[in-house]
Amino acid sequence: MHLEEVDALSNRVFGHPVGIALDGACFGNCLLGPTGEVWGFVIGQSLFDEAELYYIAIDPKQREKGYGKQLLDGFIKACRQRGAATIFLEVRESNEVVIAFYEKAGFQKSGVRKHYYKEGENAVLMRRGGTNT
Q1: Active site positions, annotated
Q2: Contacts for 42 with CB less than 8 Å, ≥ 6 apart
Q3: CA distances from 13 to 39, 40, 49, 74, 130 (A)
Q4: What is the pLDDT along the chain (133 residues), one digit of tens a residue?
Q5: What's the CA gap between 35 and 72, in Å, rounded?
Q6: Cα 106 versus chain centre, distance
Q7: Cα Rg of the chain, angstroms
């Protein structure tokens, strides 16, 4: 992965770098532009028959072009290849666009984590596969 560029994009999209999440158990992929710049990335982790999607980000200038779906589809495929039947994620309760994106990809709401984010916003828990297929 292009770690410095991923952290820079993460800062633009999320307001913080993801470098802390990039330990040996994580895996992911980058979407590169024609001159090698990072247009997007996905990072997650799998363990046995479960996986968790930690981050997916697309450069704001490259959105609405299908790149997020491309990265998510690749992540789902990689999870299957690693033996994960269920994928989990959290998303801000107020982020209706992203919730709809995940629902379109087969994720279902499975719960809420109250006051999950630093400023007190709830996280919607979502899952794909397992008993919620």
Answers
A1: 90, 102
A2: 28, 29, 53, 55, 56, 57, 71, 72, 74, 75
A3: 11, 10, 30, 20, 30
A4: 578 899 999 999 988 888 655 566 788 899 999 999 999 999 999 989 999 999 999 999 999 999 999 999 999 999 999 999 999 999 999 999 999 999 999 999 999 999 999 999 999 999 999 754 4
A5: 22
A6: 14
A7: 14
Q: What domains, with CATH codes, occur in the chain?
A: 1-84 (3.40.630.30), 88-133 (no CATH)
Strand 86-92 with 108-113, pairing: unpaired
**Residue in 82, 28, 85 with CA at minimum distance from that of residue 57:** 28
- Taking the complete model, does pTM exceed 0.90, yes or no? no
> What letter does residue 33 receive in the DSSP assignment?
-
Q: Give me the residue label for tokens 């008993």.
A: 131
Residue type, 32: L
Largest pairwise CA distance in the chain: 43
Q: Tokens 């709401």 label which residue?
A: 109
